[in-house]
Amino acid sequence: MHWPKGVDGLSYGGDYNPEQWPEETWDDDVMLMREAGVNLVSVGVFSWARLEPRPGEYDFGWLDTVLGKLHAGGIGVNLATPTASPPPWFTLAHPDALNTRPDGVRQVHGSRDTYDVCAPAYREASRAIAATLAERYADHPALAMWHVHNEYGSATYSAHAEQAFRLWLQAKYETIDALNDAWWGSFWSQHYSEWEQILAPRATQYLANPAHELDFKRFTSDAMLEHYKEQRDLLRAANPDVPITTNFVFGQWVPVDPWKWASEVDLVAFDSYPSAPDERAEQQSALHADLSRSWAGGGDWLLMEQAAASLHSHDGAIAKAPGRMARHSMIHISRGSKGAMFFQWRAGRGGAEQWHSALLPHAGKHTRMFREVAEFGNTLPGIAHTVADPVETDVAILWSPDSWWATAGKHLPAPVDYLENVAQIHRVLRDRGVIADFVAPEGDLSKYTTVIAPTTYVLSQAGAENLRWFTAGGGRLVASYLTGAVDENCQVWLDGYLGGMTDLFGIRVTEHLPQPAGEPRALWNFGAAERFCELVELRGAQCVTQYASGDVIENQPAVTVNPFGEGEAWYVSCKLVDEAWDRLFEELKLSGPGRPGLDVVDRGPWRFIINHTEKEEQVGNVIVPAGSWAVDKKR
Ligand code: GAL
């Protein structure tokens, strides 16, 4: 039960908000959806105030009508529980259920996501609205899937959170002394003598305790997961045949550990909003897709949201060129998504997202955008049979939420951009035509021949043992700087860092030597390092290349390799530039059929080719026009 019930082939559609529009538009919507090849829409995502205008007083009339019309039109419904936006009456009645920022300011309603997952009143109200929806719609013929909440991620530092955090800590550490040990409590007089003294890591005078902050992120992920599971269980009890999901959002600020969550959803769903203004947007899309597939254990997942017409660059939206929406969708589909969904179906007339692009623009169906949307949507049924086989690869990159969160700390030896380091490996591999999976440091590595650990800063004993076992058994491990610098409590791995695995790597890292920004350090015959370098002492490993210059590091090992058991462990003691990683992957003979600007993904007998370049490209016998894509039999 992993797939929207009753929706054949690939899903195509998006968030549909009929409650924002007069009833006269609804028939038009269904007609145009059919014209565009839409077969699944997400309904009700933020509609709590319209479903329950006053406490306990429901208005389901509009939803009944909409679901009826969609069903008659053959369009499946991904029905949301509306808990990401509690109504104004609720927050006025329960101000303590609003979320509190780290600076202690309690937010007010007026936007969305103003909720506190730890507030009892919010939990109760969430269960009540989910149960009411379940009772009414669980057997509705239009219901294809449940969409719980929206993009969990809004953390809260409230008194409720604090209380729940203490209980979470008690369950984890059992004694206050164990917590003090784990958090290195003697530093700056942070030793606690009672659980009640522990606060949420709100704004404090200077640097906060990194172990405290990391535990709070983990706690928040678990607290949100509890909120999700309460709703899921109610929905499941009402009809066990309807799959249940929630849409993951991506960002360092998001306190959700997808490895823990993935097993609790029937289908991993992901919202992909690339932010790069250039061709890195394709790179980001591929990264999102490979992460999502990996969270889904290599199986199907669903791209739940993307923007039809623009990229979400940090400097504002940038229009997607014709065909780019389809290419982005195909990046996801080729890498495991069973469809392409969008935010949103009809562009909003008012409200904060009135300028967000949509499948159906403000100007209506006689637009370039809608024509493109309909053309792509009507192509999908013809390729649905090509996605039956899994995406296969024997290369994995470690994805460590703990490392992402912990490297946000301002106290590191030098700033570390964990996501960029992961993305860099993924980018260089993609340009070499290699598809990579992601795996948790403690995850199952058995199907991989090469595992790359980019700056896996937090490495637990279990993670370290996993990597040791992988390498001893014949795997090729490649780790980059700061990997295994600290353990799961953010305490330094003594005597050489590396998660205590100095024997595995055949080296000790003895010093961190950050270099001035903008002054790259050349490596002999190997490109260069930027910003972060480490001093490495050989203890049996072979030196692959050395630093050509730099105080202390000149002529010291920069990249090393050590045979271990049946395998070998490579270590990169610096932040390499892309060309240097490319050089290293050349050495490791990692390459595939794709090339820069050209995604090639093989699945069973089928080959997906996506040409992002401005010229025609040929792969085997297949010619793909500029800016276009093809699926063909592998020959
Ligand atoms: C998503 C969200 C949608 C919409 C979209 C705009 O993060 O789930 O509701 O706000 O962003 O890009």
TrEMBL record:
GO terms for cellular component: beta-galactosidase complex. Its EC number is 3.2.1.23. InterPro entries: Beta_galactosidase_Trimer (IPR013738), Class_I_gatase-like (IPR029062), GH (IPR017853), Glyco_hydro_42 (IPR003476), Glyco_hydro_42_N (IPR013529). One of its GO terms (biological process) is carbohydrate metabolic process. Coiled coil: none annotated. Substrate binds at residues 112, 150. The keyword Magnesium does not apply. GO terms for molecular function: beta-galactosidase activity. Gene3D superfamilies: 3.40.50.880, Glycosidases. The keyword Hydrolase applies. The active site is at 151 (proton donor), 305 (nucleophile). Residues 394-588 form the Beta-galactosidase trimerisation domain. It catalyses: Hydrolysis of terminal non-reducing beta-D-galactose residues in beta-D-galactosides. Residues 15-380 form the Glycoside hydrolase family 42 N-terminal domain. Keywords: Glycosidase, Hydrolase. Belongs to the glycosyl hydrolase 42 family. This is Beta-galactosidase.
